[in-house]
Protein backbone atom coordinates (compact mmCIF):
# COMPACT_ATOMS: atom_id res chain seq x y z
CA UNK A 1 0.00 0.00 0.00
CA UNK A 2 1.41 3.41 -0.90
CA UNK A 3 2.34 5.74 1.89
CA UNK A 4 -0.16 8.43 2.83
CA UNK A 5 0.98 11.99 2.38
CA UNK A 6 -0.09 14.73 4.79
CA UNK A 7 -3.00 16.84 3.54
CA UNK A 8 -0.85 19.99 3.73
CA UNK A 9 1.70 18.41 1.39
CA UNK A 10 -1.02 17.40 -1.07
CA UNK A 11 -2.54 20.88 -0.99
CA UNK A 12 0.87 22.46 -1.59
CA UNK A 13 1.60 20.17 -4.54
CA UNK A 14 -1.81 20.94 -6.08
CA UNK A 15 -1.28 24.69 -5.60
CA UNK A 16 2.17 24.56 -7.19
CA UNK A 17 0.84 22.51 -10.11
CA UNK A 18 -2.01 24.92 -10.75
CA UNK A 19 0.31 27.97 -10.69
CA UNK A 20 3.20 26.44 -12.58
CA UNK A 21 3.66 26.21 -16.32
CA UNK A 22 5.99 23.23 -15.91
CA UNK A 23 4.78 19.86 -17.14
CA UNK A 24 2.95 17.75 -14.57
CA UNK A 25 5.48 14.98 -15.03
CA UNK A 26 8.28 17.32 -13.90
CA UNK A 27 6.30 18.60 -10.92
CA UNK A 28 5.50 15.04 -9.84
CA UNK A 29 9.16 14.09 -10.16
CA UNK A 30 10.26 17.18 -8.20
CA UNK A 31 7.94 16.27 -5.33
CA UNK A 32 8.76 12.56 -5.46
CA UNK A 33 5.29 11.35 -6.37
CA UNK A 34 3.91 9.57 -9.41
CA UNK A 35 2.09 11.37 -12.19
CA UNK A 36 -0.97 9.23 -11.50
CA UNK A 37 -0.93 10.32 -7.87
CA UNK A 38 -0.71 13.96 -8.92
CA UNK A 39 -3.60 13.50 -11.36
CA UNK A 40 -5.76 12.00 -8.62
CA UNK A 41 -4.94 14.84 -6.24
CA UNK A 42 -5.79 17.43 -8.90
CA UNK A 43 -9.08 15.70 -9.72
CA UNK A 44 -10.01 15.49 -6.05
CA UNK A 45 -9.06 19.16 -5.52
CA UNK A 46 -11.24 20.18 -8.49
CA UNK A 47 -14.19 18.32 -6.98
CA UNK A 48 -13.59 19.81 -3.53
CA UNK A 49 -13.31 23.30 -5.04
CA UNK A 50 -16.51 22.85 -7.05
CA UNK A 51 -14.76 23.09 -10.40
CA UNK A 52 -15.87 19.60 -11.40
CA UNK A 53 -18.96 17.67 -10.34
CA UNK A 54 -18.49 14.89 -7.82
CA UNK A 55 -18.84 13.88 -4.19
CA UNK A 56 -16.79 15.96 -1.78
CA UNK A 57 -15.06 14.57 1.29
CA UNK A 58 -17.63 16.27 3.53
CA UNK A 59 -20.41 14.56 1.57
CA UNK A 60 -18.64 11.21 1.97
CA UNK A 61 -18.35 11.69 5.74
CA UNK A 62 -22.00 12.73 5.99
CA UNK A 63 -23.12 9.76 3.89
CA UNK A 64 -21.18 7.32 6.09
CA UNK A 65 -22.69 8.82 9.25
CA UNK A 66 -26.19 8.73 7.78
CA UNK A 67 -25.78 5.09 6.74
CA UNK A 68 -24.67 4.21 10.28
CA UNK A 69 -27.71 6.02 11.66
CA UNK A 70 -30.05 4.20 9.25
CA UNK A 71 -28.57 0.83 10.26
CA UNK A 72 -29.03 1.66 13.94
CA UNK A 73 -32.63 2.78 13.40
CA UNK A 74 -33.38 -0.37 11.40
CA UNK A 75 -31.98 -2.50 14.23
CA UNK A 76 -34.06 -0.60 16.77
CA UNK A 77 -37.18 -1.05 14.62
CA UNK A 78 -36.51 -4.79 14.38
CA UNK A 79 -36.16 -5.04 18.17
CA UNK A 80 -39.45 -3.19 18.57
CA UNK A 81 -41.20 -5.50 16.06
CA UNK A 82 -39.95 -8.55 17.92
CA UNK A 83 -40.96 -7.09 21.28
CA UNK A 84 -44.47 -6.33 20.00
CA UNK A 85 -44.78 -9.84 18.56
CA UNK A 86 -43.56 -11.39 21.82
CA UNK A 87 -45.79 -9.28 24.04
CA UNK A 88 -48.87 -9.69 21.86
CA UNK A 89 -48.65 -13.48 21.50
CA UNK A 90 -50.96 -14.05 24.50
CA UNK A 91 -53.42 -11.26 23.69
CA UNK A 92 -56.91 -12.38 22.63
CA UNK A 93 -57.39 -10.89 19.15
CA UNK A 94 -61.16 -10.43 19.68
CA UNK A 95 -61.00 -8.52 22.96
CA UNK A 96 -57.45 -7.20 22.91
CA UNK A 97 -56.94 -8.41 26.50
CA UNK A 98 -54.72 -11.02 28.06
CA UNK A 99 -56.44 -14.28 29.10
CA UNK A 100 -57.39 -14.55 32.78
CA UNK A 101 -55.23 -16.67 34.99
Q: What sequence of helices (H) and strands (E) makes up the elements?
A: HHHH
What's the architecture of the largest domain, going by CATH? Orthogonal Bundle
Structural class: mainly alpha
Strands, total number: 0
Task: Please explain how this structure is put together.
By secondary structure, the chain is mainly alpha-helical. The chain has two domains: 1-54, Arc Repressor Mutant, subunit A, CATH 1.10.10; 56-89. It has helices at 7-19, 24-31, 35-48, 57-87. The longest helix has 31 residues, at 57-87. The radius of gyration is 28 Å and the shape is rod-shaped. It starts with 6 loop residues before the first helix and ends in a 14-residue tail after the last helix. The mean pLDDT is 89.
Produce the secondary structure layout.
Elements: H1 7-19, H2 24-31, H3 35-48, H4 57-87
Describe the structure in brief.
The chain has 101 residues and is mainly alpha-helical.
Primary descriptors:
4 helices; Arc Repressor Mutant, subunit A; 101 residues; 2 domains; mainly alpha
Amino acid sequence: MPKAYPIEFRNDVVAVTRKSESPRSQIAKDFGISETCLQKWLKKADIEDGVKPGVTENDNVENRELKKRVRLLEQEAEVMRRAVAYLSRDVNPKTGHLPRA
